[in-house]
C-alpha cells in the first residue's frame, strides 16, 4: 500500500469501483420519483404545483451542469482519482441538507449541491475508467457507469417504497439521509485505486505511471513487452499532443476536435431528449395518466420498470465491445421512438381530461386493456434504452477525445447532458398538465431525429485504444460515417513495435539536431 493503491484490487476489471459515482445520479432520480405521490412530502412542502415541482426536480441537474464544467480544471490540475473522492464528500453535504430541509428553499439548495457532486462524478468517472482499462474491455467498464445509475435508481426506490409505510415526514427524510452511504463508501474506497497513468505521464510522473500500467495489465512486471509498448504509446501520444498548443477551451474549436465535441455533446443531448430520464423521474405521472390508480399499485408498477432497467443493462455491458457503438445507438433510438408513439397514440385515442388529486390530468378511464398496454409499452421503452443508448451515451464521449482536451471535452459533453436534463425536468410536469399525450409524440420525434444523426455522423470506435481512435477521425467521412471500417486504427503487435521504433528514431534525430 506504499504505492497509494492496492494493485490486486485495481487490476481486477470487475472492481470498477469508481462507477459508484454514477450511482449517485440514480439515487437522486428515485429520491424524487418516490415522493411525488407521498402525502407527507406534499403537505410538508406546501403541495407544489407542476411548475414548482419541476423546479425542485430540476435543481439537481442545474447543479450538475456547473459540476460537469468544473471538471475541466479540477481533473487536469488535481488528477482523476482525487476528484472522484471529492465528488463523494460533496454528495454527503447535499444529502444532509435535503434530509434536514425545513422548506423548499433548503431542499432546492441541498439538491443543487448534490447535483454539483453528480456533475463532477458523471464527467470524471468515465474519463478515469477509460484511461485505466484495456481497450478490449473499455466499453464494458465505462458502460458500468450506466449500470450503477440503474442500481442507484432501483435501490433507492425500494428504500422509498419501504419507507412509504411510515407515517409522517420520516417517510421521505430517512431515504434522503440513507443516500449518503454509497457516497461515503465511494470516497473511502477510492483510496485503494491508482491514479490515471495517462494523467501521471502528462504531469511528468512517468515512473509511477509505468508501475501502475504494470500492475493493471502486466502482473506487476514493468518489463512486460505489452506494458512497455503501451507505456511508449501513451508517452508518444502525450508528447505529440503537447506540441499542438496550449491546454485551453480554444483547443475544442480546432479542426478535428470541434467535430468530436459536437458528437460527444449531441449524443448526451439525444440521451436526454430520448425521454428516458423523464420516464424515470415522472413515471408516477405517466402511470397516473394511463389510469393506474392507488399509491401502492403505482409504486409496484414503477419498481418493475426499475428492475427491467437494471437487468437489461447487463447484456449491453457484456456485448458493447462486440456489437459496436453505432448499431446499438441506431437500433435503440428507432425502438424508443416507436414505443413513445404507441404510448402517445393510445393516450390520445382513449384518454380525456380528468382530475387526480385535485389536479387536471389527461387520464384513461374504463379501458383496463389500454392501461396495461401503455404500461407494457413504457416497460419496452425502458428496456430499449437500457440495452442500447444508456451505456453507449457514457462510453462514446469518454473515448473519442485526445488526451490534451479529454477532460475539458468530456465535461462539455456531460454538461450538455445536464443542461437538457435541467430543461426537461422542469418543463415536463407543466407539459403533461397542458399538452398531455402530445408530449410523447415530441420525445418520439426526437428519437427518430437522433437515429438519422447517428447513422450519418457517428463513426464506430469499439475495440481501439484511445490512441488508435485518432486514426478513425483522420479518415474524414463527416457525414458518411458508415464508410469508416471497424478495422481502421487497429494495429497488430508488429505494427505497434514498428511504430514505437519509428518514434524513437524521430526523437533521436531531433536530439542530434538540437545538439548541433
UniProtKB/TrEMBL annotation:
SUPFAM superfamilies xrefs: MFS general substrate transporter
Membrane topology (UniProt): Multi-pass membrane protein
Ranges of residues in domain Major facilitator superfamily (MFS) profile: 14-462
Subcellular locations according to the entry: Membrane
Listed transmembrane segments: 52-71, 83-103, 109-128, 174-193, 261-284, 304-321, 328-350, 370-397, 440-458
GO CC, alphabetical: membrane
InterPro entries, per the entry: MFS_dom, MFS_sugar_transport-like, MFS_Sugar_Transporters, MFS_trans_sf, Sugar/inositol_transpt, Sugar_transporter_CS
UniProt GO MF annotations: carbohydrate:proton symporter activity
The reaction(s) this protein catalyses: myo-inositol(out) + H(+)(out) = myo-inositol(in) + H(+)(in)
A Pfam match: Sugar_tr
Keyword tags: Membrane, Transmembrane, Transmembrane helix, Transport
Entry's family note: Belongs to the major facilitator superfamily. Sugar transporter (TC 2.A.1.1) family.
Protein name according to UniProt: General substrate transporter
Organism: Obba rivulosa
Amino acid at each position: 500500500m506504499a504505492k497509494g493503491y492496492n494493485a490486486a484490487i485495481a487490476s481486477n476489471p470487475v472492481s470498477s469501483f469508481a462507477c459508484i459515482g454514477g450511482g449517485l445520479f440514480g439515487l437522486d432520480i428515485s429520491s424524487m420519483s418516490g415522493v411525488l405521490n407521498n402525502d407527507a412530502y406534499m403537505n410538508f412542502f406546501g403541495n407544489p404545483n407542476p411548475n414548482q415541482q419541476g423546479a425542485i426536480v430540476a435543481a439537481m441537474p442545474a447543479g450538475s451542469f456547473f459540476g460537469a464544467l468544473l471538471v475541466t480544471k479540477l481533473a487536469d490540475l488535481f488528477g482523476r482519482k482525487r476528484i472522484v473522492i471529492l465528488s463523494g464528500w460533496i454528495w454527503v453535504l447535499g444529502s444532509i441538507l435535503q434530509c434536514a430541509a425545513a422548506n423548499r428553499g433548503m431542499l432546492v439548495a441541498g439538491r443543487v449541491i448534490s447535483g454539483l457532486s453528480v456533475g463532477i462524478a458523471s464527467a470524471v468517472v468515465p474519463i478515469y475508467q477509460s484511461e485505466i482499462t484495456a481497450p478490449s474491455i473499455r466499453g464494458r467498464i465505462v458502460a458500468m457507469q450506466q449500470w450503477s445509475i440503474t442500481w442507484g435508481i432501483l435501490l433507492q426506490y425500494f428504500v422509498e417504497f419501504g419507507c412509504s409505510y411510515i407515517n409522517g415526514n420520516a417517510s421521505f427524510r430517512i431515504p434522503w439521509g440513507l443516500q449518503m452511504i454509497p457516497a461515503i463508501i465511494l470516497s473511502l474506497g477510492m483510496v485503494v485505486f491508482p491514479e490515471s497513468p495517462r494523467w501521471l505521464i502528462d504531469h511528468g510522473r512517468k515512473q509511477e505511471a509505468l508501475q501502475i500500467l504494470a500492475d493493471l495489465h502486466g502482473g506487476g512486471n514493468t518489463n512486460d513487452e505489452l506494458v512497455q509498448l503501451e507505456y511508449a504509446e501513451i508517452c508518444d501520444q502525450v508528447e505529440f499532443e503537447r506540441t499542438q498548443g496550449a491546454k485551453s477551451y480554444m483547443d475544442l474549436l480546432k479542426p478535428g476536435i470541434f467535430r468530436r465535441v459536437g458528437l460527444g455533446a449531441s449524443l448526451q443531448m439525444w440521451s436526454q431528449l430520448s425521454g428516458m430520464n423523464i420516464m424515470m423521474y415522472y413515471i408516477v405521472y405517466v402511470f397516473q395518466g394511463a389510469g393506474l390508480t392507488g399509491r401502492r399499485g403505482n409504486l409496484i408498477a414503477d419498481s418493475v420498470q426499475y428492475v427491467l432497467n437494471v437487468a437489461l443493462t447487463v447484456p449491453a455491458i457484456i456485448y458493447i465491445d462486440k456489437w459496436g457503438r453505432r448499431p446499438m445507438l441506431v437500433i435503440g433510438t428507432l425502438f424508443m421512438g416507436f414505443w413513445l408513439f404507441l404510448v402517445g397514440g393510445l393516450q390520445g385515442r382513449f384518454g380525456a381530461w380528468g382530475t387526480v388529486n385535485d389536479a387536471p390530468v389527461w387520464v384513461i378511464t374504463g379501458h383496463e386493456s389500454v392501461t396495461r398496454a401503455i404500461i407494457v409499452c413504457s416497460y419496452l421503452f425502458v428496456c430499449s434504452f437500457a440495452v442500447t443508448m444508456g451505456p453507449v451515451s457514457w462510453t462514446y464521449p469518454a473515448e473519442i477525445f485526445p488526451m490534451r482536451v479529454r477532460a475539458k471535452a468530456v465535461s462539455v459533453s456531460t454538461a450538455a447532458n445536464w443542461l437538457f436534463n435541467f430543461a426537461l425536468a422542469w418543463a415536463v410536469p407543466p407539459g403533461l398538465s397542458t399538452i398531455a399525450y402530445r408530449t410523447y409524440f415530441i420525445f418520439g420525434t426526437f428519437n427518430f431525429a437522433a437515429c438519422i444523426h447517428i447513422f450519418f455522423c457517428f463513426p464506430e470506435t469499439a475495440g481501439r485504444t484511445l490512441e488508435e481512435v485518432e486514426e478513425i477521425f483522420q479518415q474524414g467521412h463527416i457525414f458518411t460515417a458508415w464508410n469508416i471500417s471497424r478495422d481502421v486504427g487497429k494495429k497488430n503487435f508488429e505494427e505497434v513495435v514498428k511504430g514505437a521504433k519509428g518514434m524513437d528514431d524521430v526523437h533521436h534525430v531531433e536530439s542530434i539536431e538540437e545538439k548541433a
